[in-house]
């Protein structure tokens, strides 16, 4: 059986056009309740200040309020930024929450963006080349994107933002994490003096590190044996380096083995067309973050923005990495792409964030995703599926009759109606083969085989998988196919 991969949520308390900040916060707290019911592992709240489109400025307060409204889900920060909050204050905030909700609290920390030093493109060296966008086992890994501070108005705004929010010269990142751990262990000392913080001492929270690059954050998280959250949704071009750096640096510490959560920007609706319609304003929203002087705009309503296809090449280049790596579609479309993210990164857990105009559509997206993810059957590569069939698994071809005739039959496959599944289950719902029979489902794509594989699982079949890439991948792998016999009418 495949390893269980939990789903969690990263919430920004997004503010939509026509919505107040208070309404956005209440919607996020309601989302926490929905997520608790849907089985999500945890919900983390981000820390963003002075952005018109984001109301999650105080993750500790939101986490405490969410914990009071839920019974099971873990709550936490994604992340407390040590550029504006001291390690002690962050630990005291979440230690206090953990006193009321022990074992349900995560303190995620991260280094804050510094407009004076971060994001400036490095000097090129002779022969150096920018990595190109790649597609690895179905996952888009774009070339890394760097924050461009050549706009003096933008840089001035960012520097002023730091002054208004309040900034601190953070110390060595490893030392700051060790301070939190020492305060929790009751061993913290400074300048030869012992200090104790009662809210932090023996507090029942987990410490996490969030990282967007394969730099200091990922390395130190590994060295201290802490769990890591890697940002695919913010910096998709860096995710493989981030995870690789963490794993290479990992030493047993807080954890005995590495544990990686990978984030993803997701939007699910009942149909792919509906999801793409709802998701159209996302490109404008990302552009406001990367080019606007005011930060994220309030999320626009569908149909009120210029279609992405009509943008200039320059504007598309600014946001393409995030638009191209957003997971938008029907439940089966999104599940298939998230499984690729797990395969390529080796993620132990996925952290889902969703921005859309209507709170009801956001809740529906998370609910649909959870249902499809929990019911999903594993997706195997065509060679893996072929090997299982050769070893005795039952192969079920759920392409339409027209699809089978045009693309070729598969020897040994049963021609199965997608709805009735008549070769496995009779008209009364009784299984025609033992429920532990290994079953491989193939269709034109995972969008066709995914629902069938899920339905079989719902009917009690315990060993069901389907083919990544469907019949075209099956044929490309050189697995047995044969064109149907053409019978002359004469």
Task: Describe the model.
This protein has helices at about 20-40, 60-70, 85-100, 150-165, 175-185, 215-225, 240-250, 270-280, 280-290, 315-325, 330-345, 360-375, 380-390, 400-405, 445-460, 470-475, and strands at about 5-10, 40-45, 75, 80, 105-110, 135, 140, 190, 195, 205-210, 230, 260-270, 325-330, 350-355, 380, 395, 415, 440, 465. The protein is α/β, with parallel strands linked by helices and about 500 residues long. The protein starts with 6 loop residues before the first strand and ends in a 14-residue tail after the last helix. Strand 4, helix 3 (about 85-100) and strand 5 form a beta-alpha-beta unit. The strands form four sheets. Strands 1-2-3-5-10-11-12-14 form an eight-stranded parallel β-barrel, surrounded by eight helices. Strands 15-19-18-16-17 form a five-stranded parallel sheet. Helix 1 (about 20-40) crosses helix 2 (about 60-70). The longest helix is centred in the N-terminal third of the chain and has 18 residues, at about 20-40. The chain has two domains: about 5-120 and about 130-375, TIM Barrel, CATH 3.20.20; about 380-475, Rhodanese-like domain (Oxidized Rhodanese, domain 1, 3-Layer(aba) Sandwich), CATH 3.40.250. The model is unreliable at about 120-130 and about 485-490 (pLDDT under 50).
